Fold:
Amino acid sequence: MGTYALPEATRTVLVKSPQAFREAVKAAKPGDQIVLENGIWLDFDMVVDARGTAQRPIVVAAQDPGSVILSGQSSLRIAGDHVVVSGLVFRDGYTPRAEVISFRRDSKTLAFNSRVTQTVIENYNNPDRSQRDIWVVMYGQNNVFDHNHLSGKLNSGPTMAVRLNTPDSQNNGHVIAHNYFGPRPVFGSNGGETLRIGTSHYSLTNSNTLVENNYFDRCSGEVEIISNKSGSNTYRGNTFFRSRGTLTLRHGNGTLVEGNLFDGDGAPYTGGVRVINADQTVRDNHFVNLTGERFSGALVVMNGVPNSPINRYHQVDGAVIAGNHFTGITAIELGEGSDSERSAVPINSVFENNVVVGTGGVSPFRLHDDMAGISFAGNVAAQLPPTAIAGGFTVNTTPSQPPANVGVAREATGVAWYPKPAMASPFDGGRDIAVAPGPDALSMAMATADDGDRLVLAPGIYSESKIMNVRIGVSIVAAQSRDGQRPIISFERPNLFLLSGNGAVRLSGLTVTGANAPDASGNSFIATTAMAMNGSAGGNHVVELSDMDFVDFDVNRGFSVVEAAKGTFYDRVAVKNSRFSDISGTVFKFDAETDDFGIYSVEYLTIDDGQFERIGGPVASVYRGGRDESTFGPHVWVTDSAFDGVGTRGAAPAMVLHGVQNMAITGNAFANANPIAFTITTGKPKTVVADNTRGAGMAVDMVSTTDVRAAK
Ligand code: CA
Structure:
């Protein structure tokens, strides 16, 4: 990392307060190094507007890298010329501005020839996940962002962006190198990109940004890991690990994608590169163990829109796809998106000297339209491709080895002094805490629990008089019992668990009664904090229920078991081997988000071996409105479950699934239930409905489908 070392200072000034810092910046001369004292700098509106020289930049550095913490409502703006900022950590707060780090002071005062290095932003999230901000935005020209660590963005907006909104920010020559982009969980709508370069408005302008040797670790916010929306950029030597979606060449022409490693590690929806527009080159990359299909294939070449408006899909023209290795990948989609609007097939393009190995003995090529505009030559495939393109391939079941020198090692990115996140479950790594029955015994035990702990409940009655605010991952399980006695939980408030922060609960072996809940409508055993009430709605939640009994949730109407407040999000609600009886409302209620902006509240709702009896509303209501194609979810998978007497109140459907993108309903027994109401709003949802049985007098179709895609 030698070329990334800080320059020598001619003079060093140690500052201990924002006031002293401001004065030091004002007085700074080329070659000065302003050093921030170690410690926590709260609500620090940090501005470095200064002029150094190429030989003698003005440097702002932490006294010790990683020991200067900017928290609360802090932000950093850089402007001027030849400024370097190094060694800061942003955490425990969020930016009050639109950006955490801006390469400009204001719209007229930009940064040039400046650099941010060795800086960390972690979990610096606006607590309201619908509030949009961007952690790092580059403006100006010839700036460098290198060896930084950006991890855990949860709220709306890309993690990082390059803007081209004035001529001074175009043709910018920026370098984004050796950064660690840590996990970005599924956002649940558009706006979860990790990096965006340009916007559709300026997309026919060249950016000339180099993105080199960065590591993208589980960057899974939406279908675009990177949204390239400008011309003449280079993506070289980066690693994409277990990241959902693709590097998407969404707008703009003449971009080069070279020597990158896309390693899906077999994780769902992992993809490679999606090609749109003119003169894009994708060469010498390695695509391995990528399971994604369609918009998330290992390679996707889109169809365009004839005479496309600037914000739609320009035709692929002059694409060069050469020398790449595809190993163990599920899909190469050619002419993807072909429909009555996207009818312009790729032209003047080549697919040469690539090596293609699919999975399970199946060729990964899928042709959605006429591919005569792509010339196939000199390729090797382990499985015979479709006839229309087979002439450009030699079939060889043991093709040459992929190149070793693609991508970058995780350790070679970010900073050495700040840990990179582990691959842990929210329920791992804690202690077992034994709990005996009694009034409020559970909430008292919960108050002592740390992240990952497991409360082990002896059989008996647990009467809970308080709502438990859960901001960590915690398991609550039944102790082993010789006589089969179970812990029985009752609660006196509208909810028992209210999830915020990183709240996640795993429950197993318990009986829960709603009999003591308030005689009021709209109770829910598990709920999320409404944002307006509390400053830490925060992260993505997880609920796991196994071997659970829920009884007597009918003290009043609209009683649910799990629900989401508007603007909150569950990564996963997973139900196994559990029984639900006498529930007055919707059992799993994820339909508060009704604005039709493509936003939804649960990524995976899975129910396996569930039994539902005497349910007033639907078993599940999931709403994903809007028509954009930015999300893979929601997913609803219901298997080997029994529905008997569901939707008894107002003849509700067995389930209401609006805009669900991936649905499986298999092996279930329906009796005394109305068909599932399934509405297709966008995309091409994947659906499997099979091996279900129905009671006498029920409609023949288990699923009643309404398609509103055409009604634009
Ligand atoms: Ca997007």
